[in-house]
Each structure stands twice: as structure tokens, then as C-alpha cells.
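Researcher: Let's do a round of design. I'm pasting the C-alpha cells now; please hold your answer until I've finished.
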């Protein structure tokens, strides 16, 4: 102990001569128990980051996966909009005056196939969109003004979008797109 006091007095004398080091050496003069207490308190924070991550991770992952599902829904809606446009193009160009190169009729009418406008509906559902979510596509074709040239044809495409969000029960969202065009030939 006596040698420590001598060393501290010598350090004080040097610190006084050198100016700004006085505060540094005064801190060194603190009792050793105080310095050890600071080290012990710092050691108590070892698990803090783990607890914070455990609290924040579910919220963060829920937000990320919810954003992915929203992007899939927007992408699917863009795809079914394209299906509706393709269906109206098909119906508009396969009107009552449609003829193939061989001279036979390629007309799409209410009596085509096995049901009402089934050839347009089966054409639309057969185009095949990238079905990333496993939903179902249905098409409905109507001729509000009749099947004559110059009258409108409307194709409505529906898609049942099953979304899976964390912490939310699984549910379905029905996406619908409609396209209208006039019969050209």
C-alpha cells in the first residue's frame, strides 16, 4: 500500500507538470471496487440484444412476408387483366364474319362448344398465367348488344387468390378484371 501511495503521488506531480493529464490520473485513483462494479454492470447486458431481436423479429418478418403477399396480389391482378384483354381480342376477331383461310367459319357464338361462349372462356382459362399462389381462374363472356359486328363483347376474369399472412387466418381474396372491345369482323 505504501508503494502505491508513493506511485500515485509521483503521478500527481507529473500530471500537474504536464497539465491535461491530471483528470486522467484522478480517475485512476478511484478505488478498485468501483472499477470492478462498472465492469460487472457492463457484463449484465450480454443477453439484451438477443431479447430485442426476439421481440422485433416476428414484427419484421410479418411485415416482409405481408409485403411479399401484396406484391403477389398486384402481380396476379396484372396477369388476369391481360387475360381479360386477350379474351376480348379473341372474341372481337372471331365475330360472325370470321373466315379461316380454308373458307370455313371461325365464328364464336353462343352455340359454340358445350355452353354459352365456352370457346372464349376455355381460350381465356387455357392461356395459362403463372399461377404462383395456387388459385383458380374463371372467365365469363357476355355480348350486351348481341353478336353482330360493331357490338361490344365483355370478358370478365375472376381469380380466387389465397393469401397466407403471418398471424392472420388463411383467407381468399377474389380479384376481378373486365375488358370490353367491339366485334370487328
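Researcher: That's everything. Go ahead.
Model: Designed sequence:
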Amino acid at each position: 500500500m505504501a508503494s502505491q501511495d508513493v506511485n500515485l503521488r509521483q503521478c500527481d506531480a507529473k500530471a500537474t507538470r504536464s497539465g491535461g493529464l491530471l483528470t486522467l490520473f484522478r480517475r485512476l485513483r478511484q478505488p478498485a471496487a468501483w472499477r470492478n462494479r462498472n465492469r460487472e454492470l457492463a457484463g449484465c447486458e450480454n443477453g439484451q440484444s438477443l431479447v430485442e431481436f426476439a421481440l422485433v423479429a416476428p414484427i419484421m418478418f410479418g411485415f416482409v412476408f405481408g409485403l411479399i403477399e401484396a406484391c403477389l396480389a398486384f402481380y396476379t391482378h396484372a396477369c388476369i387483366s391481360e387475360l381479360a384483354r386477350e379474351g376480348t381480342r379473341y372474341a372481337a376477331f372471331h365475330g360472325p364474319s370470321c373466315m379461316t383461310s380454308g373458307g370455313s367459319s371461325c365464328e364464336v357464338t353462343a352455340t359454340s362448344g358445350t355452353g354459352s361462349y365456352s370457346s372464349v372462356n376455355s381460350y381465356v382459362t387455357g392461356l395459362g398465367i403463372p399461377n404462383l399462389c395456387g388459385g383458380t381462374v374463371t372467365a365469363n363472356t357476355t355480348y350486351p348488344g348481341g353478336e353482330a359486328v360493331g357490338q361490344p363483347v365483355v370478358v370478365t376474369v375472376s381469380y380466387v387468390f389465397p393469401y397466407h399472412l403471418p398471424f392472420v387466418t388463411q383467407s381468399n381474396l377474389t380479384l376481378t378484371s373486365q375488358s370490353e372491345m367491339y366485334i370487328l369482323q
